[in-house]
């Protein structure tokens, strides 16, 4: 009897487990997310309405019951209600539109059409609008609904077409690898295009200078705090020189240099070849290795500020890779955004130094001596950066060498000319920094005092 009870319980447990497994399998397959998808959208405010014209793949809309015939062909003539339901569930509910910071109410679905993947009408707003308002596809076409596109025209009521508009799309459920292209058509202005990922957050479609500056200021600040390679470089840069005067000289040199190369890259004065990004990433790791090794063998601020300037040029190009996709959010305020980003980087560096310098002081005072501590810290950084450099070198070696054509040689010539100008500027600044203390002594003590004693070093630790 006991054995029968045990067998019965075991069978019931097995049945429950099987049912649970089946239900989980059904849920898992109820919405098979495509591997890749692309969405196109136009946003056009005009008078008291805003039109959102959007094209999305129907493959992800598995939960919608589309009318079919035969082996699963879509019945277009009976699909209007299903198409509007898909627009509600997959577009309206997943896209928030804002006017002057206030979320707009649900829009009217002005039109919804099934479209063939070969259709090219979304190249312009006018062609796309004419297409979505045009006749629907014929019923005699043998179309599998999951292979088609859904074009929808949504109309939002707005107060003015001159308001500040923003969007917050949450379309990650469409595909594992989703990209979306949004084009904003302000009244009387040029088309502004955005290429967004699956969860881009709130996107200002036409930011003002203050909005762009605030956004890029925060971007620069957090980039320093989250960029491990830049933090290690900053650590190696200042660990032997923790007094105020040399810190100002070193950080200023680094900031000015990366501002120059970042601005140059933003205005198109940087190679667009595929090998350039891994080259810069490899060089950034190499700058950390060099700086750490120099700390071990010994350095002085006079030489260090010039090296910091040279390496800052490299790091500035590294910053530009981050901003390459972010520049689209600057609107018409690219220069303001660049200044704000550099200011954010500088604030981030100062914040790091406020924490780093006292921490190093405590370490060298209570744990190990200063010289031994500098060597230990630099050796640990060298180990990490060396592995980065080798990994990035392997990535770089995958790219073919650039061909020595006229365009490449012209680019090299421009780069050498720019490097010569920067070297000349560094030389002039170096002379002025050395001359400044001498002139100050001359004014305070006269020529005899200047000749009698050596001048103080502006780079003194």
Q: What's the helix and strand layout?
A:
Elements: H1 2-30, E1 36-46, E2 49-57, E3 68-69, E4 73-74, H2 80-90, E5 95-99, E6 102-103, E7 108-115, H3 125-132, E8 149-157, E9 165-169, E10 177-184, E11 192-196, E12 203-204, H4 209-226, H5 228-238, H6 244-266, H7 276-297, H8 301-326, H9 334-366, H10 370-397, H11 406-452
Parallel strand pairs: 1-10
Antiparallel strand pairs: 1-2, 2-8, 3-4, 5-6, 5-9, 7-8, 9-12, 10-11
Give the spatial strand order of the biggest sheet.
Answer: 7-8-2-1-10-11
Distance between the termini: 91 Å
User: From the alpha-carbon coordinates, what is the Rg to the nearest angstrom?
Assistant: 31 Å
Tally of alpha and pi helices: 11
Secondary-structure element sequence?
HEEEEHEEEHEEEEEHHHHHHHH
What's the total count of β strands?
A: 12
User: How much strand?
Assistant: 5-15%
Overall morphology: elongated
């Amino acid at each position: 009897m006991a054995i029968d009870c045990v067998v019965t319980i075991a069978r019931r447990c097995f049945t429950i487990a099987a049912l649970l497994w089946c239900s989980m399998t059904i849920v898992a397959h109820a919405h098979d997310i495509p591997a890749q998808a692309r969405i196109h959208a136009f946003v056009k405010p005009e008078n008291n309405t805003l039109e959102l014209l959007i094209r999305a793949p129907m493959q992800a809309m598995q939960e919608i019951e589309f009318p079919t015939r035969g082996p699963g062909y879509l019945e277009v003539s009976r699909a209007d209600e299903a198409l509007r339901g898909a627009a509600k569930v997959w577009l309206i509910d997943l896209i928030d539109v804002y006017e002057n910071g206030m979320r707009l109410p649900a829009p009217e679905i002005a039109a919804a059409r099934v479209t063939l993947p070969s259709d090219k009408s979304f190249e312009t707003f006018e062609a796309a609008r004419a297409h979505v308002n045009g006749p629907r596809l014929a019923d005699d076409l043998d179309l599998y609904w999951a292979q088609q596109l859904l074009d929808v025209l949504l109309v939002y009521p707005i107060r003015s077409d001159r308001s500040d508009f923003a969007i917050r799309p949450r379309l990650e459920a469409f595909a594992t690898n989703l990209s979306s292209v949004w084009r904003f058509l302000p009244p009387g202005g040029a088309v502004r295009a955005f290429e967004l990922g699956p969860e881009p957050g709130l996107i200002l479609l036409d930011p003002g200078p203050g909005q762009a500056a605030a956004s890029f200021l925060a971007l620069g600040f957090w980039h320093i705090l989250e960029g491990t390679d830049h933090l290690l470089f900053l650590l190696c840069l200042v660990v032997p020189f923790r007094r105020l005067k040399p810190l100002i000289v070193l950080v200023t040199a680094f900031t000015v240099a990366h501002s120059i190369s970042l601005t140059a890259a933003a205005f198109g004065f940087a190679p667009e070849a595929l090998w350039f990004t891994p080259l810069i990433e490899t060089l950034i790791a190499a700058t950390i290795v060099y700086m750490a090794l120099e700390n071990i063998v010994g350095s002085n601020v006079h030489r260090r500020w010039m090296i910091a300037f040279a390496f800052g040029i490299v790091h500035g190009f590294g910053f530009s890779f981050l901003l390459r996709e972010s520049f689209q959010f600057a609107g018409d305020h690219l220069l303001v955004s660049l200044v704000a980003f550099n200011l954010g980087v500088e604030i981030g560096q100062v914040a790091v130094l406020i924490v780093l310098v006292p921490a190093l002081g405590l370490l060298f005072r209570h744990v190990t001596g200063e010289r031994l501590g500098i060597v230990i810290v630099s050796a640990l950084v060298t180990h990490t950066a060396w592995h980065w450099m080798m990994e990035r070198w392997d990535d770089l070696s995958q790219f073919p060498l650039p061909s020595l054509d006229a365009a490449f040689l012209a680019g090299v010539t421009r780069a050498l000319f720019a490097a010569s100008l920067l070297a000349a500027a560094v030389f002039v600044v170096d002379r002025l920094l050395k001359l400044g203390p001498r002139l100050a002594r001359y004014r305070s003590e006269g020529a005899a005092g200047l000749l009698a004693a050596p001048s103080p070093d502006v780079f003194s630790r």
